[in-house]
Amino acid sequence: MKDKNLDYSSIIGLVLILSVLMIFTYFNKNHTNTNKHNKFKKLDLNYQEFSITDQRKKNHFFLLENDVLKLKISSLGGGIHDVLLKKYKAYDPLLSYHAKNLYLIKNSNFLYKLSFLNQKGLNIDTNTLYFQPILLEKNKISGIRTLTMRAKNPYGKGFLDYIYTIGEKNQYDIGFSIRTKNFSFFQKKGLILNLEHKILSLEKDRDWENSYTQVCYSVYSNNGNSNYSDSVKYLSEKKTEDKNIYGVKWIAHKQQFFSFIFIPEKILKNVFVQSENLSSGFFLKKIQLKTFINPVKNEDISFRFYFGPLDLKVLKKYQNGFENIIPFGWVFLKWINKYFFLIVFQFLEKTNLNYGVIIILMTIVVKLILYPITYKQYKLSAIMKSIRPEIEKLNHKYRKDVFKKQRAIMELYHNVGINPMSGCISTLFQIPIFYSLFKFFPTLINLRGKSFLWVEDLTSYDSIFKLPFFIPFYGNHVSLLTLLYSLASLVYTKLSNNGRKNVSKNGDDSSIPDMNFLLYLMPIVMLLFINSYASALSLYYFTSNIINIVFFFFIKEFMLDEKKILIKIQEKKEIKRNYWNNIIKKIKNKRDENPTSE
């Protein structure tokens, strides 16, 4: 990101910078070694770690940390070199589970610089400056640690400070302020902030992780008015896209389970953002951000950086709408996940059981809640089975007149007191619940890295065998949980359709397709579709089908008696027949009592 069009003044300035920094580094190092009890003593150990940027400079690193974050600040450019999340681990392909230290930022894959401009064409790019620590202190009341890095003006008097602050204990955000002194000569035309972030892959399935990686942002409404919307907008997660964003409230570089969030203290009127999708390698996407800042004299330019998990409880504490970047699905599905499944899951999580057991218990709870709908479906199925002989008689009787046949069948339904559409309504009610889980389990950080039986990670697929080739839609591995789910689904389909025929099908009409074929095809389709999905999803669906099979036998044996249903149907038909006979009889009696004269 260095400026390649340097003039002679810039070259002279850079030479002076190198000379000054060499002298300053030498004297500063001696100073820190002779003052072991002053406020710089915490920095001494960090000087043992350095990288040589050229033959004349050494890039030193300085640590800033709390209970959850460990930051390494670079002297060259003054930027953040590493960010370690202490409570999480990254996936290790050699060990096949999450075992490596989790770095959101590593080896400067996160770069930012300021460019100061003036009318004479001179410029200062901060990534060429050499910063030294001048202050490291901890506030005894708030516990906030402050690290101030200072670089001198290469063109004369003045200096530039980068001020980093970090809270104690479990704060995932840090403060970053820019302070200048005697830089007014360079600030007349403002300054440009450039940020480049290459997002590291941290999970087992790179492609799956990349599908969740994208830029999210929130903007102020009414042209920067204090009123704002918590709604989140996105750049594409699949292709390269760039955009000018106006009135920026915050911008997030979201991954599957973690995120960096850029939070300006004041409104940024116009920010250019570009997201480039990377199809291979260690990085998922390259995100670039560029904005112009017009600083106010004697006032710091301040931001906050969030480096942390996509944890709903953590993000909601900021009261800034950050929690809306968690991809729980579209509006209705998101509502189901946040206010139903997540609440049930968090309640069961308090039991401290294995997370696989929690998912099984969660499935049982959901199925019990949906039991009334399940019971009505079984009851409708039993009634349809009981009246099938009469429907077949109507099919035969009106085989040449489809309209009369449908009217007679609907009259039969009415007489026995059922509505065939109620089964469709029950199914439609369960579809949102079915699909909301596709967004719930793969993004739930509580499940990340949690094992169950042979499953290594419940947020990724379980693989019992690696295929030497790739099957379209299926993948190159065999998931046992997906196989078990598909098998249980086939068994349940066989039981629920045992002996069933398509009641609307005319025996002489072969043009209507066999719906049973589609029912048996669905488990096969799902086998292909969810083989690479989160194993927690397959576990949920497998348990759900086992419960459906148990419900089937329980309702059939103890709650629904098909003989009694048939007797009730006959009684209803008899009541209906007697009702119409009585009406006809009354009409005839009235006619007999009041004969019309000819």
UniProtKB/TrEMBL annotation:
Domain annotation Membrane insertase YidC N-terminal: ranges: 64-342
Annotated membrane topology: Multi-pass membrane protein
Keyword Secreted appears in the UniProt entry: no
Top-level taxon of origin: Bacteria
Record keyword Zinc-finger present: no
Molecular functions per Gene Ontology: membrane insertase activity
GO cellular component entries: plasma membrane
InterPro entries: Membr_insert_YidC, Membr_insert_YidC_N, YidC/ALB3/OXA1/COX18, YidC/Oxa/ALB_C, YidC_ALB_C, YidC_periplasmic_sf
Keywords tagged on the record: Cell membrane, Chaperone, Membrane, Protein transport, Transmembrane, Transmembrane helix, Transport
Database matches in NCBIfam families: yidC_nterm, yidC_oxa1_cterm
Family from the record: Belongs to the OXA1/ALB3/YidC family. Type 1 subfamily.
Function of the molecule: Required for the insertion and/or proper folding and/or complex formation of integral membrane proteins into the membrane. Involved in integration of membrane proteins that insert both dependently and independently of the Sec translocase complex, as well as at least some lipoproteins. Aids folding of multispanning membrane proteins.
Protein name according to UniProt: Membrane protein insertase YidC
Species, as recorded: Blattabacterium cuenoti BPAA
Gene expressing this chain: yidC
